[in-house]
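Hi V.,

You were right to ask for the full record rather than a summary. Here it is.
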Amino acid sequence: MMSLRQIALATLAAPLALGLAACGSEPAAEGEAPTGDPVDPVEAPSGTEWLDMVQVTEADGYLLGNPDAPIKLMEYASLTCPACAAFAQQGIEPLKEKYISTGVVSYELRNQIHGPHDLVLARLVRCGAKEAYHPLSEQVWANLQSVLQPVFENQEAVQQAMSLPPEQRFAAFADVAGFYDFFAARGLSRDQARQCLSDPAAMETIATNSETQSQELNVTGTPTFFINGRNVGTQSWSTLEPMLQAAGAR
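Predicted structure:
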């Protein structure tokens, strides 16, 4: 987790090392998952589907599904974390199809920031409509190696970008990284993306939320999951699904 000041002063090697260190790869539970009786499906309002509903929470998380779902799943994830990418590729579709679509489980995704590349991506997935946040995050994870490769192949240019004034540095970083082309191919225009990255206050908010929430909730790595407010630690889909079922998602 890094504050905006730390991100601004960090070398490229430091964010990479931090990202790898904070990105968990083995399931490790913080505590026992809650248990409950089987929960019946909850019908969405007429003419709607739970999978189309997204709300931005007070904590700047993006909640997908029934906001009043009896089982509330929350994930702290890094957009540059291979373990988070693995969870997204293995678990997101069954999570949506089996549990969120029925109104039984809601899924809130929050970002933990591991470096400047992570911060830029976290801002870009927020840049369009709130409904685009989850699909864009999933696209980053599905293409993680190709998304990050230019960052680590152009270290000198990245360092130069990060030495610019706050209102210029992240927009320049995205240019070096090739992020504009990646997001433009997915519906976010270059001008819109550049405008989002030229807002230091918005960048500061994301970095500060990551730092303060991680400390308050003891989120030491990603992906870390909470079920009904209980920290159940770093999990894979194969270990998380039984926890959801034990909580009542049958």
